[in-house]
Amino acid sequence: MRKLSDQQKIDIVSEYLRGKSCGEIAKTSPVNRSSVRCVLLARGVKLRKRKREFDQKYFDNIDSEDKAYWLGFIVADGSIYLKTYTLSIQLGEKSRDHLIKFAKCVGYKYHDDYNKKKNAFRIRLNSKHMAKSLGELGIIENKTDFIQVPDLRNDLLKHFFRGFFDGDGCIKSKKIECRTDWTIEASSNCRDFIYCVKDWINKQIGEEFGSIYEGTSKKYQTIYYKLIFNGNTKSLLVASLLYNDNKISLDQKQLRFDKMVEYNKNRIPNKWGK
């Protein structure tokens, strides 16, 4: 840190106590924001929590594609901490841009928050109101085993389920001799929820198919349920139902879907078109 005179340090403390932020003080000081914080801490000043504005009522009324999508994504990859009323979403480095998409939807100015231990980026929103709204929609603390499908319009449920598949699902391909076999699958620790996902998809397509398998996570020693749609025709039907004509999805999953469509376009008629 650049050496500051006692008067400069006094001025920094004075400006902070008058309401200026560390960033604002740094703009007119010979030191950066971190150094301003160090000065304040060294002088025994209690730092204010940084306030970042966002739409705390975003989930009050799920009436659009993006709201339904993010609700489903949070079911898969979000966490609620009621003690601090915090919504946290943490994703790997390759999915950092997806956090920026979420931030933009809720009107939040995203700043990189990197978790070195998990090699991941995260976004954390503190709001009692938002936490309560999510709770009313079934997004609760330690939700893993108690997930429910929210009461949404049917046209919004496809976006909700796409969000879930983006978080806890995958589109796989396997080359066998001269062909490629595709599958789409998703997992959940909540048995009732995964059966609801299967039932909704079957109802939309008008056909009963898909298998659910029970397994045990070696890492967490918990039971999970995996929903799998095998075969190029079935997997394409499901993926098309979820990913066709959407305004928001995880880039990696959308790319996999596009590859699936490209591979099958002259082999299988796509019910929903592309």
Based on CA atoms alone, the radius of gyration comes out at 23 Å
The SSE order reads: HHHHEEHEEHHEEHEEHH
Question: Could you name the ranges where pLDDT drops below 50 across 5 or more consecutive residues?
Answer: none
Major β-sheet annotation:
4 strands, antiparallel
**Widest sheet, order of strands:** 1-2-4-3
Q: Strand-residue fraction?
A: 15-25%
Tally of individual helices = 10
CATH fold field value of the domain at 168-264: Endonuclease I-creI
Percent helix, as a range, is 40-55%
| General shape | elongated
Mean pLDDT over the residues: 90
**What would CATH call the class of the domain at 168-264?**
Alpha Beta
CATH architectural type of the domain at 168-264: Roll
Using DSSP, what is the number of strands? 8
Structural class: alpha+beta
Report how far the terminal alpha carbons are from each other. 57 Å
CATH superfamily of the domain at 168-264: Homing endonucleases
Overall description:
It is a single chain. A hairpin with a 6-residue loop joins strand 7 and strand 8 (223-229). The strands form two sheets. This protein has a four-stranded antiparallel beta sheet with strand order 1-2-4-3. A four-stranded antiparallel beta sheet has the order 5-6-8-7. By secondary structure, it is of the alpha+beta class. The N and C termini lie far apart (57 Å). It contains ten helices and eight strands. Among the domains are: 6-42; 168-264, Roll (Endonuclease I-creI), CATH 3.10.28. It has helices at 6-17, 22-27, 33-42, 65-77, 96-105, 128-136, 154-168, 191-205, 232-243, 251-264; strands at residues 78-81, 86-92, 114-115, 120-126, 169-176, 179-188, 211-216, 223-229. The model has no long low-confidence stretch (mean pLDDT 90). It is 42% helix and 19% strand.
